[in-house]
Write a structure and sequence with these properties.
Number of helices: 4
Helix content: over 70%
Mean pLDDT: 80
Radius of gyration: 21 Å
Structural class: mainly alpha
Shape: elongated
Order of helices and strands: HHHHEE
Number of strands: 2
Distance between the termini: 80 Å
Strand content: under 5%
């Protein structure tokens, strides 16, 4: 009876961990694609290494999550993804004006030639 309970608990744990690793893989792919879509000059303007540096680091993270699955390397990759999302990406958005690829999104009152102030 104890062996059956342990087996059920282990199956549940492995099922949960497979979902966690899938989430980490999706997160690392998102970071890599986001870094690839940003402009090279935004990295230099934000003083956050280079685009190539971040693409190599985040690409290695994707490869580790896809092929190796070693816990130490997965945790190191997670830290790299978190650094990108918390530090680098906001700086790139600020320098590039936000949006994908650094395109600036205006407010809802912007017209084709700038902000509309209602005739004031």
């Amino acid at each position: 009876m104890d062996g059956m309970v342990a087996s059920v608990l282990l199956d549940g744990f492995y099922g949960l961990m497979s979902w966690v690793f899938l989430g980490l893989l999706i997160f690392s792919i998102f970071c890599f694609v986001d870094a690839a879509l940003r402009r090279e000059d935004a990295y230099r303007a934000a003083d956050k290494k280079t685009k190539g540096f971040w693409l190599i680091i985040l690409g290695i993270t994707v490869a580790v999550n896809l092929f190796l699955g070693m816990l130490f390397l997965t945790i190191a990759g997670l830290i790299a993804n978190i650094v990108y999302m918390v530090d680098v990406r906001p700086a790139l958005v600020q320098v590039g004006g936000g949006g994908r690829g650094g395109f600036r999104r205006g407010s809802s009152s912007d017209g084709p030639y700038g902000p509309y102030n209602g005739g004031r």
